[in-house]
């Protein structure tokens, strides 16, 4: 099976709307397009649903905190707790004042 490149242009606003949704599903844009094309090839139909289910999206402050937390985790700056020590860790945080 050979492969070919596929480039497409997106409106900046559409890209900004779509990328966070794909990220919530753990998909890259390439994976999403590949899934879309595979479904068309398998069914011979365009797989579109016009039902709208609102997906809760974090606000900017929360999204920044999530990104910072991921970066800290990837850099090894976070302390991990087992289930056995989680209660003690929470108690330690509560008594930190």
Automatic annotation (TrEMBL):
Keywords: Toxin-antitoxin system
Domain of life (superkingdom): Bacteria
A single BP term in Gene Ontology: DNA-templated transcription
Pfam families: RelB (PF04221)
Family: Belongs to the RelB/DinJ antitoxin family.
Protein name as annotated: Type II toxin-antitoxin system RelB/DinJ family antitoxin
Species whose genome carries this gene: Conchiformibius steedae
